[in-house]
Amino acid sequence: MLELIDLSKKFKQLYAVKNLNMFIEKGEIVGLLGPNGAGKSTAISMLSSLVDPTTGDVRFHNKSILKNPSPIRKIIGMVPQEIALYTDLSAEENLRFFGRIYRLKGAELKQKIDEILELIGLTDRRKDIVKKFSGGMKRRLNIGVALLHNPELIIMDEPTVGIDPQSRNYILETVKRLNEEKQMTVIYTSHYMEEVEFLCDRIYIMDQGNLIASGTKDEIKRILSAEKTIVIKADRLNDIFIESLRQDPTISSVTVEEKKVTIIVPKEINIFPAVLKLAEEAKLELNSVDIKTPTLEDVFLHLTGRALRD
Amino acid sequence: MIWIIVKKQLLVFWRNPQQLLLLLGLPIILIAILGASLGGLMEGGPVSIDAKVAFIEHGNEQTQIDQFLNEVENSKLPKDAITAINNSTEKMTPITILKEDILGSDELKNIIDLEIIKPREKANVLNNKEYAAVIEVPENFTYQTLKSIYLKKGTTGEIQVYKNEGNQLGSTIVTGILQEYQEQLSFSTFAGKQGITEEALQVDPNAIIGETVTINQKNPVTAKNYYAVGMAVMNVLFIASTIGSIAFLEKRRHVFNRVILADVSRWVYFIGIFISGTIVGFFHLSIVYGVSWVLFGLSWPNPLGFFVVTLGLAVSVGGLSVLLTAICFRLNSEMITNFFGSIIVTVFAFLGGSFFPIGDLSKAIQVVGNYTPNGAALTAYLAILRGDGISAVLDQFAFLIMFAAVLVTIAAISFPKRGQIV
Ligand SMILES: Nc1ncnc2c1ncn2[C@@H]1O[C@H](COP(=O)(O)OP(=O)(O)OP(=O)(O)O)[C@@H](O)[C@H]1O
Ligand SMILES: [Mg+2]
């Protein structure tokens, strides 16, 4: 349905997106994963016809959208990363305005507004000014606005940022339901692995403008099949210990967080004795050493040597 | 679709009561303060123009008339034509009409102080600054004029006017009168040539006087009214920066992107901004003037003229709004609206005479000031207040519309292209 071909966007010297190739089939939920500044939002702006790419093409049903963006605009529902609402207007007034610019009117518009308010759970707050809403309510309305015109393709750019787990689950469930009941195609951007794991059939992972992995969940996890992730916890980590881990040739990645070091090693190696020995040499008291089942988070760690979130 | 955008823009405007109050309250408070503190400055009855005018007549009118009649008598004209000319002798005194019926009329007596001067004193009079104007009737003026009118020979004589630049108002009035008079004489000649000899010398002193008096005895504009208008035309400019900020906020909040993604042309949005600016500007002016009318008694003798000027100014505000919006979108910064609101409006207000009638100080500033939208509107509003009709403000109206057209064009050129708005 939608194809991104060698898509690049350059801001001055910086490639926000570089040679991105992607495809999206009707009815699937595709995840776009990456840390801050990976280029997710830029990629989305290009594929939705908001921003022209520096080079490359976006093809919708095999026709370039660059010359004629109207066909794709008609079927897209966009949930931007930012709260794109009129904060001085009420929930209902926002929905009415955006419905009107999607050429809805009269009874149809009214019914659609009621339906959306019900869906996002804001029916009894419909007359309230958006400014007075909580972050989660704004997020929900931000999504609701994108659903007014029954879009075939819904694009969600980090729709769950800054909201409580309950609202977040509700949103995720709603997305899944829309996909199952209405066969809506979804492009879902996030830096929460668990969201993407829960929702998506296929995943693209970006970092610093580049696509670093793509495929189904299982395909991506298989990248890690030859390796395992080990988490070492200690109250007072010291530099000697970390440095010696880094020096060890069998360890392919060392990531340090507060009171926690994550390392990646080949599957067949038993690293426990080595870790204990290094800890002793560094006069470090360990709390625990665990083997973790691989998550997408680990894939990212493996691919980039960095954690997905700071 | 444009109307949907406009309606929403107006709604957003309406939802900001503090802003609204500031935009409306500020001019009204300023009008009240300035009006109260400057109350007496420009008040008083009609401007009294006491123009001393010298009248120099070469040759004697009666002699010339006799000479003319003599020639007619001896000509080969048909008998009844000669009789007709003879019968209208009493009307055949163009100089006396000018001297007594026009310049010496009751209406002009208050304005013009006419002195008959002997030709040999001409040099003295010309050097005397007391005289606002010197009128000189050349030798044979009457003879030539009559010959031209009745016998279709030659042209009417030309009356010479020397203006004293130091006394602009007086000399302008005199020049105006004489121009009108000369035109009427020429028309008589023209009429005469068409064969309407009976009615030949058709100068209508009342028409000439009437015209002059209405021009120069206009309603005086009080200081209160002057500043009410000055503040109104200045403050309405802030509407443009407010509309610009609102539009830029739409971009920053990414709602503009939603509009674009709904496949609404950016030109629809662009026109929506222009229309919003115009409408809000119009209402702003109407409300400020409405309050001024209720509280300070500022009333408009010619409502239609008032409407035309207000409309012109509102359209300029629309143009400014859309230009500021385009620049904000282009530079991706709100800086220009702040710059406009703080610096440009002040400069415009200063040059346009909102703070004091700066045009009286210098002709150059007056010209420049009239090229600001507020200055042009102020000039036009004052003309309406003085009792002028719409025709007196058409120039300013045309300027305001042109001004808006130019701004809209610049805005259209600088508005970011499709796919370039990030
Ligand atoms: N309009 C712009 N001008 C200049 N640089 C930009 C612009 N938009 C994005 N960038 C840069 O491009 C890179 C990618 O940004 P983008 O917003 O696409 O990342 P992202 O993956 O969406 O990140 P996040 O998770 O923080 O939303 C960043 O380095 C950013 O600074
Ligand atoms: Mg982003």
From TrEMBL, chain A:
One of its GO terms (molecular function) is ATP hydrolysis activity. Residues 2-233 form the ABC transporter domain. Gene3D superfamilies: P-loop containing nucleotide triphosphate hydrolases (3.40.50.300). The keyword Cytoplasm does not apply. It comes from the Bacteria. The keyword Nucleotide-binding applies. Keywords: ATP-binding, Nucleotide-binding, Transport. SMART domains: AAA. This is ABC transporter ATP-binding protein. It comes from Virgibacillus oceani.
Automatic annotation (TrEMBL), chain B:
It comes from the Bacteria. Keywords: Membrane, Transmembrane, Transmembrane helix. It is found in: Membrane. It is a multi-pass membrane protein. GO terms for cellular component: membrane. InterPro entries: ABC-2_transporter (IPR052902), ABC2_TM (IPR013525). The chain crosses the membrane at residues 20-42, 226-249, 269-292, 304-327, 339-358, 397-415. One of its GO terms (molecular function) is ABC-type transporter activity. Residues 20-413 form the ABC-2 type transporter transmembrane domain. PANTHER family: DOXORUBICIN RESISTANCE ABC TRANSPORTER PERMEASE PROTEIN DRRC-RELATED. This is Permease.
